[in-house]
TrEMBL record:
Protein name: Heat-inducible transcription repressor HrcA
SUPFAM superfamilies registered for this protein in UniProt: GAF domain-like (SSF55781), Winged helix' DNA-binding domain (SSF46785)
GO BP of this protein: negative regulation of DNA-templated transcription
Keywords: Repressor, Stress response, Transcription, Transcription regulation
Described purpose of this protein according to its UniProt entry: Negative regulator of class I heat shock genes (grpE-dnaK-dnaJ and groELS operons). Prevents heat-shock induction of these operons.
Heat-inducible transcription repressor HrcA C-terminal domain boundaries: 115-336
Organism (species): Thalassovita litoralis
GO MF terms, alphabetically ordered: DNA binding
Name of the gene: hrcA
Length: 354
């Protein structure tokens, strides 16, 4: 960030070290860092009064703040961003963390959805944050499709893919549907779709239905159209958002206001609000991106941070993302390599099974 770079260039060595120590202390403990504790860790021996003056200057610059009436300071959002951009030291990934993530691939199952579930659970456990995995649409050819009635106003589209993957999607069928019209609609579609992927069908299927409308009766035609609206997911590039580890963000000592912000965050995640937006931001370049607090509007109310990385298929095309959500005082130096490794792991897993 330009503003952060300008401020960073204005700091002398002592100010830089005090700033870095305050942020590192806060990220480690979550508590404000005072001048007395810094006198024991700084490389040069200076008085607590001198350190207090430096901290006041950093506060005036907008990098530190005072949460309570105390001598301690915490980094502001701008301060955290400057620390991440200019001071963050990314660690080597812990071997035990790597092993726990690798174990999610110790099955021969070809069900990508199930593997992504396990990866998301493992990522949450390793980081002690909430994990997110944005899964790609299933791109195997479709083998068979059928409609299943669950009542007068509920039905399923059941899709069986050539690789054994099965998807069930709930929808509201047009009034008056009968078992006969459902069978007719399914037979009509199966004659068109076999061997095609969902992406193939989005550009072909409606034209085919329009050209061959006379082959099915009006009830079956309505059912085909209403079913298509569900299983095409027109306009969506991603199939679902997997979120694990919500409880890791809910601490016993959180006040009601903090808990409500976390609930808002998860409500928004369930509705996939702004998910496309942060995915588009990750697509501007490979690698891990860090969004702190209000830098992404999805997290502005909850005061959370997101560490996220896209993952790619065998053609080096971005098809989804993995990430970790946590408080702004995340251990970024540890989380960044974990998210990066998980994204590579998921990309390889999907490439191997495609």
């Amino acid at each position: 960030m330009k503003q952060g770079e300008n401020i960073l260039s204005e700091l002398n060595d002592r100010s830089r070290e005090v700033f870095r120590r305050v942020v590192e202390g806060y990220l480690a403990s979550g508590d404000p860092v005072g001048s007395r504790s810094l006198t024991r860790t700084l490389s040069e021996k200076v008085s607590a009064a001198t350190i207090r003056n430096v901290m006041q200057d950093l506060e005036y610059m907008g990098l530190l703040g005072s949460p309570h009436i105390s001598a301690g300071r915490v980094p502001t959002q701008m301060g955290l961003r400057m620390f991440v951009d200019g001071f963050l030291e990314v660690r080597e990934m812990d071997q035990l963390d790597r092993q726990k993530l690798d174990e999610t691939l110790s099955t021969n199952a070809r069900d990508v959805g199930g593997l992504l579930d396990r990866v998301s659970t493992a990522l949450s456990g390793v980081t002690q944050g909430a994990s997110i995995v944005l899964a790609p649409k299933h791109e195997a050819p479709i083998k068979h499709l059928e409609f299943v009635s669950l009542g007068v106003d509920r039905a399923l589209v059941v899709m069986v893919f050539a690789d054994g993957h099965v998807e069930n999607r709930l929808f509201t069928p047009p009034p008056g549907q009968t078992p006969s019209s459902m069978r007719e609609a399914a037979n009509f579609l199966n004659a068109l779709i076999e061997g095609k992927t969902l992406s193939d069908l989005q550009t072909q299927i409606r034209t085919e239905i329009s050209n061959r409308r006379q082959e099915i009766d009006s009830l079956a035609h309505e059912l085909v159209n209403s079913g298509l609206a569900v299983w095409e997911n027109e306009g969506e590039r991603y199939e679902r958002l997997i979120v694990r580890g919500r409880a890791n963000l809910l601490n016993a000592d959180d006040n009601e206001e903090d808990l409500e912000r976390i609930r808002v965050l998860f409500d928004d995640l369930e509705r996939k609000r702004d998910i496309e937006e942060f995915l588009q931001l990750t697509e501007q370049g490979e690698g891990v991106r860090i969004f702190i607090g209000s830098e992404n509007k999805l997290f502005s109310l909850s005061g959370s941070s997101l560490v996220v990385s896209p993952y790619m298929n065998a053609d080096r095309k971005i098809i989804g993302a993995v990430g970790v959500i946590g408080p702004t005082r995340l251990n970024y130096g540890r989380i960044v390599p974990i998210v990066d490794y998980t994204a590579q792991l998921v990309g390889k897993m999907i490439s191997d099974r495609s």
